[in-house]
């Protein structure tokens, strides 16, 4: 049992931490759902394995602030679970998910969208950040 405590460093989970975790989960789920509804309204695919099947470049609503609100929402929900549990080790899956998305999934999607939409996608990529919205306007955000 002592070895388990060393392997799973836990933060004492307080009511405030659980409240923040709940709000983060609701916000993250809202981002993911809102992004999915934007794809649905544009009548385009939300399938991350087939970005070449998209029929529209969605750049309005949530997508005007961040290029990946669905993924941002997924990472937020994953992080909220670790917060709810009060587990630092519980953050490992969230960090792994964010890293995998950032290094593998998103670049593949960006390549497919750039190939399909060309200049329109490159302009969008320069104007809108990949992850976290910025309050600064006119700053280049492409990687």
TrEMBL record:
Keywords carried by this UniProt record: Membrane, Methyltransferase, Transferase, Transmembrane, Transmembrane helix
Main subcellular location: membrane
Transmembrane domains' residue ranges: 20-42
Topology of the protein relative to the lipid bilayer: Multi-pass membrane protein
Pfam families according to UniProt: PEMT
Compartments it resides in: Endomembrane system
GO-annotated molecular function: methyltransferase activity
GO biological process, one term: methylation
Protein name per the record: Phospholipid methyltransferase
Organism: Glutamicibacter mysorens
């Amino acid at each position: 049992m002592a070895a388990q405590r060393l392997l799973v460093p836990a933060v004492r989970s307080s009511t405030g931490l659980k409240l923040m975790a709940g709000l983060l989960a609701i916000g993250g789920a809202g981002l993911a759902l809102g992004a999915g509804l934007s794809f649905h309204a544009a009548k385009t695919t939300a399938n991350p394995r087939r970005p070449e099947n998209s029929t529209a470049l969605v750049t309005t609503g949530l997508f005007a602030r961040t290029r990946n609100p669905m993924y941002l929402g997924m990472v937020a929900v994953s992080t909220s679970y670790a917060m709810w549990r009060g587990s630092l080790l519980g953050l490992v899956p969230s960090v792994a998910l964010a890293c995998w998305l950032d290094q593998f999934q998103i670049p593949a999607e960006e390549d497919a969208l750039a190939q399909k939409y060309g200049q329109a996608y490159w302009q969008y990529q320069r104007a809108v950040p990949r992850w976290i919205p910025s309050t600064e306007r006119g700053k280049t955000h492409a990687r």
